[in-house]
Amino acid sequence: MKVLYLTFVIVIILSCQPKSRQFDLIIRNAMVYDGFGNTPYVGDLAVSSDTIAALGDLSRDRGNVEFDAKDLCLAPGFINMLSWANETLIEDGRSQSDLRQGVTLEVLGEGSSMGPWSDRMIREEEAAQGNIKYDVEWKTLGGYMEYMEARGVATNLASFVGNGTLRRYVMGYDQRIATSEELEEMANLLDKEMTMGAMGISSSLLYTPSRYANTAELIALSKIVAKHGGMYISHIRDEGLYLLESIEELIKIAKEADIAAEIYHLKASGRANWSKLDTAFDLIESAQAEGLKITADIYTYPASSTGLHVQLPEWVREGGIPKTIERMADKSLRRRILKDIKFEHDPDKILFVGFKNPDLREFIGKRLDEVAKILNKTPEEAMIDLIVHDNSRVQVVYFSMSDENIAKKIAKPWVSFCSDAGSYTNEGIFLKQSTHPRAYGSFIRVLGKYARDEKVITLSEGIRRLTFFPAANLKIQKRGALQVGNFADLVVFDPVEVRDQATFEDPHQYALGIRQVWVNGIQVIENGEHTGATPGRFVRGPGWQPEVIN
What we know:
CATH class of the domain at 165-263 and 265-302 and 410-416: Alpha Beta
Shape: globular
CATH superfamily of the domain at 165-263 and 265-302 and 410-416: Metal-dependent hydrolases
Helix content: 25-40%
Structural class: alpha/beta
Number of strands: 21
Number of helices: 20
Low-confidence stretches: 6-16
Largest sheet: 9 strands, mixed
Oligomer: single chain
Strand content: 15-25%
Radius of gyration: 25 Å
């Protein structure tokens, strides 16, 4: 009888023990950073299909695939708040320069977007293509995003609608205030794109034609976006002399449209303006104290990158690049253009990184003052001739910012991060041009240089600002944090090894220290190398209506 009783007790005890569960993937013994900024802990994470299925002590459970992350860190996938990967991912969907930094979501659309496009715009876009050639098979931004998902990309994609794109669709490059009818047409286009999954509206107020939009137009369009729960995000009108006034305009738009607003790549550009950054902080934080949701993103370098053409007078740039080049090629206008050029950045601080014309690529890696001497011309003359002969804006790097200011910005809890660059593979067609090292290093520097080495922020805080913080700002559901039910966008990295290798002289160098990356539960980086998988998805904004057809 006693034996039967003991047997019964044992059976009962065993039946109460947790049963072993089977998962597709278990990551074991990782230092887990949840994305919320909480204190990390050693634990396990399980994935079923594309979803985080369990967290904690999973020692009794089994995975079809298991990875021991002892001495390594586990974090949610990082978010690139300003990516120019819209064309580079058509050429190569692996997104290696970003994935190898832990980025699993590219947010596109700074001032211009891949839709909505009219037939005229499609012809213009195809004619303006450089090294990367492709047929335009869409007209809406939503259509482009679905095209990319079907084509295959390694990272997830989201996008804003560019105010400049709406203006081109309705008004071309006209330098004037929109009529009420034109504004209504832009609003209707925007409304449709929001229902197809756009994140909001973006402006790029330094560049044509977005720069022709007045504050009233931006408020009116932002109100359309606010109705859908989206965001206004802006390359503000000026980042130097009129930095503070430009921030005040963004705050006004946010207040009057009742919308969250973000400043693209916040900076005080030019030595004379570096001291303005603290006042810029005061403006933003005063607006936050009033209840406005104002945020910013930055890249982690003291140099920016854009076209050489922004050094030209406003009247020369009117109408976009084709009209600009047409004016510059007109010998009768040359003297006037030369007289009106006022360099915002000194020629010795302007580095050439990209030409369309192969005959001009010998100048990549040289500065404008050097090239001018080689050509036996003044910097002004050299600039005009190079833009005309390249038939493009000519991509350059401007050394215009302060390292001290970068650290100040990183220390702010309302700042996230971006690359403001394409996502490249360091081979093939991409090596025909140079680029800014931020394409290969902007995010890894948060973990290595600024968290580990300089201790500007903690590693936990750095990860929060790379993950949950931007996801929450964008109102993206089920991404940006390690919690059960979220999509399995995961990064495993070595906290000792993480560092950037890219330099201004040799930018096409992958970051180090990212060991494993999963996107939607599919491994895309294994032991530091790309698997070839392309599981990226179209991540839709809060206004998405599934019944709307692209």
